[in-house]
Amino acid sequence: MVGIIALKRSRPPTVLDAQGAFQVLDKSIVKFVPSLSTGFTWGEAVERLKSHVDINWGKMETTLAEYEAFRYGGRPMPSGVDAEVVRLAMKLRRKIIGYRDQGKSPRTN
Amino acid sequence: MDIEIKERVLGQIRRVVVGRDRESELLLISFLAGGHVLLEGVPGISKTILAKSFGRCMGLDFKRIQFTPDMLPLDMIGGFVFNTKDREFEFRRGPVFTNLLLADEINRAPPKVQSALLEAMQERQVTVEGLTQKLPSPFMVIATQNPQEFQGVYPLPENQLDRFLMKVDLPYPDQSTEELIIRRNLSDMDTLNIDQVLTAQELEKIMKEVGEVHVSDEIIQYLSAIAEETRKERRLRLGASPRAMVHLVHCARATAYLRGRDFVTPEDIKMVSSFVLPHRLKLDQSAVLTGKVAEPSEVVQDIFTKVRPPR
Predict the structure, then answer these.
(1) Is the pLDDT of residue A104 over 60?
(2) Do B216 and A41 touch (CB under 8 A)?
């Protein structure tokens, strides 16, 4: 059972576009960073995870700005899937982070 | 969209006022959103100089009224005086005819004066004996009140508080800021040191651009969900009014603009919500007495952690 869960978490998710990538990241944050409340914004999530997860945050922030322009500003969806967004989601899933969440989710304990 | 505007304005205010960047930014947001601000704080914490400096760097005509219990509405809006030369009554404009009005200690004035000012704030015009006079544009009121005063004051009722776009609490400065204030005031401090950083044309253009900042349907749904939550909340006797939500979205637009965007994000709404909503909410007394809540801002914070923004 443990092996199946570990295998499932290590497999990269199938993501078709930028919106899909951010949806996967959203789910990963909700599930594995429970101390971020339901009402979290992307800015708050980035702020919280920045110093704990090792990814290219400069690139991540640029991608997020483009995604927000699409999501809230009516701009066209950014083309392609940014690797940093998926990498962050995967790192949260696999818990390859220097971040110990203080929330009560049994998955993080 | 111009990120530099904020720095230009704050940079000038910093020349005279120490450690009030957050408050300066909120004044700028309110101004761009076309609203009025209530500053709350004890005397001597730079409320007046902040307002004066703000007016000066924006190139606005500034006037100050010290509110007192014996004031009459005419002292503020003006009235008819007899011109002995022409042998006719003529309207003499009061200090409300300005761009930036500092209404100092608004809660010391009797309700008649308060409501006259609040009418001017809402309608942007005054009427005396059937004569309607438009106020200059832009027109912004920065009112102050001291939360420690209980005697000889007339607290603003809920419907009047609702007219203020924001209520900003000015705390005491921290120790290092206080040292800086004392050091700076060893020499003469004057708002004359402040340069005007925006012309009237620039201001007009900026305010037009702020009005064009995009608000998506999902953001509007998010706002209405927030409003609904405040009305369902058991710890509140009075939730947010539709006007509160309109004010919130205007502030969010100005915030987005100052951050260099032409669209509003949930981040912008969250950032201004703690200054736009709490003063309009009324706590349920039984919730206060049972220790469930002490301040409306706690409820606002809880609601924003509960309601899922569009992501």
Answers:
(1) no
(2) no
> What CATH class is the domain B213-306?
mainly alpha
Segment holding B176, helix H or strand E: helix B175-184
In terms of DSSP bridges, do strands B166-169 and B37-40 run parallel, antiparallel, or are they unpaired? parallel
* Contact yes or no for A39 and B307 at CB 8 A: yes
What would the CATH number be for the domain defined by B4-193?
Answer: 3.40.50.300
Domain locations along chain A: 2-104
State whether B304 and A74 contact (CB < 8 Å). no
Q: Which residues are bridge partners to B65 per DSSP? A: B103
Question: Can you say how many angstroms the Cα of residue B73 is from the centroid of all Cα atoms in its chain?
Answer: 21
Q: Is the ipTM of this complex over 0.85?
A: no
User: Tell me, what amino acid is at B253?
Assistant: R
pTM score of the predicted model: 0.88
Q: Give percent of chain B above pLDDT 90.
A: 62
Contacts of A44 in chain B (CB under 8 A): 267
Check residue A97 and give its pLDDT: 55
Give residue limits of the domains in chain B. Answer: 4-193, 213-306
